[in-house]
Structures are given as structure tokens and as C-alpha cells.
Amino acid sequence: METVWGLLLGLVSGVMTGSFSLPMKKTVRWSWEAVWLVWSVCALLIIPWTITFFTIPDVGAVLRQSNLRDIGLVYAFGLGWGLGAVFFGQSIAMIGISLAFALCIGFATALGTLIPMLKNPQIFGTAPGLWSVAGILVMAVGIVLCAVAGRQKEKQMQQAAAGAASSAGRMMLGLLLATLGGIFSSMLNFAFNFSGSITKAAVSVGASAASASDPVWAVTLLGGLTTNVICCSFLLSRNRTWADYKKAGTASHWVLAALMGAIWMPSIALYGRAAVMMGRLGSSAGWGLYMGIVILVSTLWGFAAGEWRGIRGKPIGLIVLGVVCLLIAIVLIGYGAAGAGHGNV
Asked: Nearest Cα to 98, choosing from 289, 326, 272?
């Protein structure tokens, strides 16, 4: 029964993650960097550390007992992940929710699976390894289809409009940023590969198995906060958009940007607990369910938000086919991970 509740919790967390960027659609009077800075502070600092102090009996003791090397590596991977978050956030503004999520999560899932496998090359010759490689190849096809769909969409939108070249350039830049976002976002998985001493320390001070990863999130996202604050501050200064925070009639923008953080970070914490409840399924079927729901929900929100309004024919077919390929790839990768987790290597 606990596994079923874990799957349901994973489903809820996937819906939340796929929906967190929706409030950005309403922050039209602020620059992207103004919105993203407020989101960063809420999602990467205030909420994760608040959760950690509520769920861990003695946070100071956890940090003192943890291996300093592990803390440093987790923070460093958080810095890399934070750069991916910046790229991803900018890609949403350029190419929309559906394309940005599909490309970013596609790359993050593929690399997050492939790179750890490189530590044990012999796994490539096993059945689970072959399933995972097949999934990565299908994922690559899905990513290409989504990218082509975006390009075709932009061409169709600009056929009779002036300035098509500059708009096409924006689309290509958005696709590149989403790709880079996915590449760097995979570092979140690497952070957890080096967090063993932190979770052990959390358990040793009385934390439950479900909350033992909370301090890992806090340290990792602190690294992400560093990158995001530096990048957003640079853009705010270069573009002279610090004044956005003083604009009259934008009080709702503060709330909306904070709401993004209030949706995103709890969704990640919920998945962490869902994975524990699912046991071995958490890193295979559970992870596949979570990623699949994120892609599916974000695609649906993209259509609902009008990102594909007026588009006909080939681009729609390509984006649908691309998303289907991504979902199939996640199932294949999850199946391979399940086989590896049960010792079928």
C-alpha cells in the first residue's frame, strides 16, 4: 500500500513541477531576470532551508558530521545545476513551456542515466544496460523531433510577418538554451551520488528516511542560488532593469514570482519522499512516472496557454510525436534501471 501512495505522491509532484512556470505568463511588466531572481531566492534559499530546519532535528550537527569533501562536491554540482536553471528559465521566455520542458528534461534524463553508467562500462553489455541505451537513443529522436517542431512552428508563424529573421534567431537561441539547461540540469543527479555522508549524518541525528535528503537539497540548491543570483544580478545591471522592482502596479509580480518557488521546491521535496515510499521502484518506475508526468503536463499547459495557437499541420504532428518518443524513452530507461536495481546485470 505504501508503494501505491508513493506512486500517487510522485504523480502529484510531477504535476506540480510541470506547472511551476505558469505564473511567469502573468509577469509581463517585469524583465525575465527580475522574475527569476525572486523565484531563485524563494525556491533555492528560503523554502529548502525552512523545510530542512523543520524536518532535521539538528541541522548544525548534520553539517559538522558530514564529510567536507561531500559537502563541497554537492555544492559544486549545485553551482552547475544553477547555471542550467538560468538557461532553462530563459528558454521558457523564448520558446514557451512545452518546448523548453521537453528539451531540457529530455537531455537531463538521458545524461543523468548515461554518465553514471560510464562509471561501470560493463553494464552496457547487460540486458538492463541495453534497455537504458535503447531509451537514450529514443530520447535523442524525441529531442530532435521537438526541436524541429519548434523551428517549423516559428517558420509558420513568421511566413507573412516582418522581422522573421530576428524571430527565427530568437527561436534558435531558445532551443540552444533549453539544450544547455538540460545538460547542466543533469548535475542534480550527480550531487546525490556524492551525498552519502550527509544523509547518514541526518539519520544519525534522528531524521526519518524520507527527510534525510532534505539537507542534501538545501546544500545543492544553495550552490544553484549562487549561480542564479550572480547571473540575474549581472543581467539586471546590464539591462538596467533593477527599476522593475519599483514599477507601480506590479505588487502581484512579487506574489507570482514567489508562487513559482512555492510550487517548484515542494514538488521536488514531495518526489524525494515518494521515492522513499516506493522503495526500489523509486529510482526506476517512480522516476519514469515523475519525468513523464512533468513532460506531459508542461506540454498540455503550453497548448492551453496558447503557445501553439494558430499552428497547423506538420509542427503539431512533430511535437506530439516528439513527446511520445520522450515518454517511451523514459519507460525504457526506467525498465533498464529497474533491472539493474534488482541485480539483473
From this structure: 326
Q: Given CA atoms 25, 26, 28, 34 in this order, what sign does their dihedral have?
A: negative
Vertex 318: Cα angle to 316 and 319 (nearest 5): 70
Dihedral sign from CA coordinates of 148, 108, 289, 132: positive
Residues with Cβ within 8 Å of residue 334, at least 6 apart in sequence: 135, 284, 285, 287, 288, 289
Asked if residues 329 and 138 have their Cβ atoms less than 8 Å apart, the reply is yes
Q: How does 158-193 read in b/e, with b if 16+ C-beta sit within 10 Å?
A: beeeeeeeeeeeebbebbbbbbbbbbbbbbbbbbbe
Please, which residues have CB within 8 angstroms of residue 302's CB and are 6 or more apart in sequence? 96, 97, 98, 99, 101, 308
Which residue has cell 554537492?
Answer: 74
Looking at residue 249, the DSSP 8-state letter turns out to be T
| DSSP string across 4-38 | HHHHHHHHHHHHHHHHTTGGGGG-TTS-HHHHHHH
Reported as a single tens digit per residue, the pLDDT across 44-75 is 999 999 999 999 999 999 999 999 999 999 99
Domain limits of the chain? Answer: 2-341
pLDDT above 50 for 29: yes
Q: How many Cα atoms sit within 13 Å of 317 on the Cβ side?
A: 3
Rounded-to-integer distance, Cα 176 and Cα 87, Å: 9
Q: Model's pTM, two decimal places?
A: 0.80
